[in-house]
Design goal:
Blueprint (H helix, E strand, L loop, with lengths): L1 E2 L12 E5 L2 E4 L3 E18 L4 E14 L4 E8 L1 H4 L3 H16 L7 H8 L6 H18 L8 E3 L2 E3 L12 H7 L2
Length: 177
Amino acid sequence: MTETRPGAARDSAPGAKNSHKNNHMSDLTIASVEAIKLKLPYKRPVSFASQTESAGHYVILRIVLSNGTEGVAESVCRPGHTGEDAVTVAYQLETFFKPLLIGADPLGHLALLAKMAKVRECRAAKMLIDVALWDLRGKVFDTFAGDFTFADGTITPSDAPGFGAALDRRKIERYAF
């Protein structure tokens, strides 16, 4: 699968340039990667087949580009179900994946996923990166990240109006651990 955007009119995304008609490259780079751990209490305990929880443990991943654009993803971590807790996922993001991401082209999504595939397991961390990259792609091209189409092995944004996730720093400071 290659990454591309059709039409010269769409090639005016900030920092974007096409070096090859089927391989989108950009002048944008990933400047920072931040994993934030949160413990959010439930109003009342929640029961699953194998466990009961009074709070959810979450990891929020924030990827910031050289132009200040932020991509955000979040995941609830339930070690009783997946074997991965928030501390482990945040450690994996900071230790294994941050060095692969810093300085990389965020629009080279598939190349980044191929690099990440060399690290075994770490499913939650890889999922967070994938979602944050889609959020970034949507913001860079001013389109809803979920509205990209996949045709003929290409990733193409549609014409939907743009929006994306934003972080509320006050909530993060209140529940961070």
